[in-house]
Amino acid sequence: MPTRPRPGGYERGCKTGQACVFGPAWTDDHDAPGGHDGCDTRNNVLAGQLTEIGFRPGSTCVVVSGILDDPYTGRRLTFEKADAGTVQIDHVYPLAAAWDMGAHGWPLDRRIRFANDLDFNLLATEGKTNQDKGDSTPAEWLPPAAANHCFYAAKYLTAARQYNLPITTADQAVLRRVATGCP
Length: 183
Fold this sequence. Notes:
- This is HNH endonuclease.
- Keywords: Endonuclease, Hydrolase, Nuclease.
- One of its GO terms (molecular function) is endonuclease activity.
- The chain is α+β, with helices and mostly antiparallel strands.
- It has helices at about 40-50, 95-100, 110-115, 125-135, 150-160, 170-180, and strands at about 50-55, 65-70, 75-80, 85-90, 120-125.
- The chain has a domain at about 40-135.
- It is globular and about 50 Å long.
- The relative contact order is 0.17.
């Protein structure tokens, strides 16, 4: 696809009067891996990607501490629920980009699955890095650690392929350039 279209109608929020186009954030009510297991998606991602995990007493869902080897920065981060913004969850193929590139035509249950897909589209990462990335695609953003570009490119392409989402010409050019340096 030459460029990213902007079909309009994207609204992530789920408060009264908001469109909630990808469903409630981190819902457990979906058919992606981890769905309907009694734990919200954010905690499933943390439990799957952190090490040295501590759970809230009496819970096997609520992650209160752990260590993250950040897939974007290469840094080792300490997660504490009291400062939860230190580690955030990234949608590798951003929700806004997915909306623009075709998700606006999907049924709601498929959009909810995409937004909560542990296997193909979610990564725990440093909060600041996630904020810097925002809704950017590869032509606009690559991980700060060059050693992690191949991992990110592969993850992005896997999510795109899994959900039949196109990539722009600019993204394709960047991903091809990255691929030349991958093993």
